Here is the input.
Amino acid sequence: MPTPRVSRFARLRAATDRVPTKWFATIGTVLFLAATAAFGGLADVPAEAKALEQLAAGETHTSPQLAITVERAVLIDSLSGTGAFPDDEKGERLLVLLVEMENLWDRPLATFGSEGVQRAVLLEGDARAADGIVREDDQTFTPWLQPGVPAVLAFSWVVPGGAYADEQPLRVVLSDATLYQAQLLSSRESWVDPAPAAVVTIPVDDVGAGAQS
Amino acid sequence: MTRGWWRRNAVALIVLALLVPAGLFALDAIEFGAVRNAERDIAAGSSTSIADWDFGSATVESLDPAAVGAPRGTEPVVVTVRVDRGHRFLRCTPPAIVEPATGRSWTSITTLDWSPPPGSQTSCTSRTGIPYDLVALVLLPAGEGQSVGDDLIVELSTASNLAGGLDLRFAVDR
Amino acid sequence: MRGLRGWLLGVLLLIAAWFVAAATPDGEALMTDPFTVTAAVGAPAVGDNLAVNIREIVVSDGVSASGGWQATGTWVVVDLDAWTVRTESPGRIGVAYLVLAHRTIAASERPLTHDSAATILDARLHVDVPQKGSLAFEIPADAVRGTAMLQIAQDNGAGAGDPTLSLEGGSVIELPLSLSDLPTVSGRALTPTDWVDP
Here is the structure.
């Protein structure tokens, strides 16, 4: 006969009957908050602001994946062959960065797609990757970067007409990705999680409508 | 196995008898369903129906390579399938040529000097109720040991929401 | 079987099963491992659908192609005939790699910017009707030495960025090369993609 159990249970019930139910919610919340406070609180801990490498035009930033050199920043009404199309009626213009990139990995890298290196060059305060990326020499659109073969690329953004001015110092954020090797499904390696690593400060050169060529 | 054994395990055995073939069928459909369509063979000169569409008959006609800018040692052929479309939605591919003896297949080539004759077209879309010839130009090899025999199939893949994928294989008299 | 003997037998069977599982080949991997066909210059090499006859390979300082495209740099140019043996869909040289000592180069898509017939990469091939054309590989200037492996295959959908992944599931035509033994030229013109026998 489970008589002892019944009486123990009865005693517990009697005790809890004395505490008003609505208190449970408050006590529970307090306990929860105390526990989370002990582990660092509920608010997101901001990522440690890593010291970003400060560079000027023509200086190279090197990561395990890429060597990037921002050479020139040009503001132009429009430019064919850049893959970016500003709307003249809205007063849009193009901001074009000439960037030398070298693939330091051991296999080809794409400049398109979710893991492409277009994420490595961004304008400060703008999360968009460039609207058009082409090779400066033959205008190949979204080119492959062959390992060990440097290439000069034109990164073009469509920008509002008044957003940038001649000789304004432009800050270009260069990000480093991390090599990730998927373990379970395949042995595929890819570069993920780009994080800002360097800032290139470069004056914008407003060339108006550009040279007639 | 005594009669008592059979009776005691009757339910389990019936379930097994149903599940095993169903399982085999499901396995086959799942593993190969994505790769292989159901097939329907049509005799030479005949036609067939899917939903409210009529397909057939199919013909193959040889052209002179020089006339279409095809290289030497080849046999360009015009593949024609008569189509009378219905109201139901059906997708189909341009006709291709399959050689059953070797498993080789050829699909339409669009870079030669040839365009569909009047009354014919290269895709399945058209207004309901107006029959037309679905045509494709196919480049067959004609060199030694490479040429395609007379035993040919004209293959057309169709897909509809109701019937899934169905490959029509028309025998042709060359 | 009751008691201890039953348990012991169970454990032994479990251990035996582990050994069997460990010895079983990885079916998934074997199914997708590419099937290799070794080519020789001047002779046809036939994979499961793709077939090529590699005619000539040179190292060139600068290249040009139909449509007016040209480029500087160090290039390995492969002239070949290509066709398919079974089906035309799919039927293309989708990926081609030059595997160097420490790097893998993919055949360049750059010539295609000005003319879709400038390189036979990605050109539509025909069953038993061969076409001729070129593949061009842009390599680092200091890499023209030692041995390399040329790999040619249909694209299985994975694209050129992952050499192991894009070769899975089909055949690969391979040709070992000695880069330092290749003829060196200047300003090589790629063969425009065309019928072998027009």
Q: What stands out?
A: The CA atoms of residues 53 and 198 of chain A lie 4 Å apart.
